[in-house]
Design brief:
Layout: H1 5-19, E1 25-28, H2 45-63, E2 67-70, H3 82-96, E3 101-103, H4 108-111, H5 113-128, E4 133-137, H6 143-151, E5 172-175, H7 178-185, H8 203-209, E6 212-217
Parallel strand pairs: 1-2, 3-4
Antiparallel strand pairs: 4-6, 5-6
Length: 218
């Protein structure tokens, strides 16, 4: 949905695919121009878009991403453009012929409306192109505490679904190189603490997320 989603949720998996000589293509729905900025100077949405675009490109290069595509739908309003997103993503599917789609599940991980909109489009793509869909998951061992903790990180009012998050349970767990994940995240200095990308996360949560990435394969 936004720049940095790929690194928080699948950086290690993307890098492992790169190491195995696989190809990974990122389709980013929005540049996240309404995201909370950690830069010292205040930026306009247009200026922040440029910053986030550069951050995305550098993080993708860090992970060995084959190519990224930015569709520039409005941050926080992707749900108003699901049909257009499906059309554009379908054209990319026809062009790239992927073997698998990696995206959000119905929970959107955080309940962010953009994440949920992207999950709906991903499901339609998987159905329309008869592709397996691997959905990002919070590790099941963390699920019981995750919802309340994630609420504390909802910084942009109005962008989150009010319904409780029904976390999916993973059926695939991939061991990852946590240092690679950290390097990718540190490129997003407009959004997170560059010295500690997991600043504010409970220590055991950060430790778990730097060791593995979890998915529900449908």
């Amino acid at each position: 949905a936004h720049p940095d989603d790929e690194s928080f949720l699948a950086a290690g998996t993307i890098y492992e695919n790169h190491k195995a000589n696989g190809e990974t293509y990122l389709v980013c729905a929005t540049l996240g121009e309404k995201g909370s900025s950690h830069l010292e100077e205040e930026l306009t949405p247009e200026e922040l878009q440029k910053v986030r675009k550069k951050e995305l490109h550098t993080a993708c290069a860090e992970l060995g991403m084959t190519k990224d595509f930015i569709l520039k739908f409005p941050d926080g309003r992707v749900n108003e453009h699901e049909d257009d997103l499906l059309v554009q993503a379908s054209k990319l599917c026809e062009q790239l012929k992927p073997e698998l789609i990696l995206s959000f599940g119905e929970d959107g991980i955080t309940g962010h409306k953009d994440h949920i909109a992207v999950s709906k489009v991903a499901q339609k793509l998987a159905d329309n192109f008869t592709l397996p869909l691997a959905m990002f998951c919070i590790p099941h061992e963390l699920a019981s505490e995750a919802e309340e903790w994630l609420k504390t990180r909802r910084k942009t009012e109005g962008h989150y679904d009010a319904n409780p998050i029904n976390f999916q349970k993973e059926n695939i767990t991939i061991p990852i190189n946590g240092e690679v994940k950290l390097r990718a995240l540190k490129h997003y200095c407009s959004q997170i603490d560059r010295e500690d990308p997991f600043h504010g996360f409970p220590a055991h949560v950060a430790d778990t997320l730097l060791k593995q990435e979890c998915f529900h394969l449908k």
